[in-house]
Design goal:
The chain is mostly helical. The protein has one domain. The protein contains four helices and no strands. The radius of gyration is 19 Å and the shape is elongated. The protein starts with 15 loop residues before the first helix and ends with a helix. The N terminus is likely disordered.
């Protein structure tokens, strides 16, 4: 007697390019976090870095790391389980991380050329993942 599937069809809707981007982003974000942390330490030693700004920059970097971990976890989970809610939450958290990345790109106390380069790459990741998130959510809903 054959088992009858009820509910979702057997068609796989998960996005392989999105999954690849999530995994590449994990590796890149580890590099990004360490590089940004080391650059903040460098800038605090070389330039006159106000203590309040140093604390703010470090706090925002650690908040961004926490949000990034949540974003990537929910994105991977939502894509693999083909659920739009975790993927949608991941997309909303991406907006928060884009704002933080723009802070480190433009509004940080001291912005080095290296800051511009690593934040530009991170924003490209966020843009590509955001587009693929929207397409995946649309595929899951339909």
């Amino acid at each position: 007697m054959a088992a009858v599937r009820r509910g979702k069809s057997s068609t796989v809707l998960s996005s392989v390019p999105l999954q690849i981007l999530f995994y590449l982003n994990v590796v890149y974000y580890i590099f990004y976090f360490l590089a940004t942390l080391l650059m903040i330490i460098y800038k605090s030693q070389v330039f006159s870095y106000p203590d309040a700004n140093l604390i703010l920059d470090l706090a925002l970097l650690f908040i961004m790391a926490i949000l990034e971990a949540v974003r990537l976890y929910l994105g991977v989970k939502g894509n693999l389980t083909e659920e739009e809610i975790p993927l949608g939450i991941s997309l909303v958290v991406t907006v928060g991380n884009v704002i933080l990345s723009v802070y480190f790109l433009a509004w940080e106390t001291y912005v080095l050329r290296a800051d511009i380069i690593i934040n530009a790459v991170l924003l490209i990741f966020y843009g590509l993942e955001g587009i693929l998130d929207i397409f995946s959510i649309a595929a899951f809903v339909s």
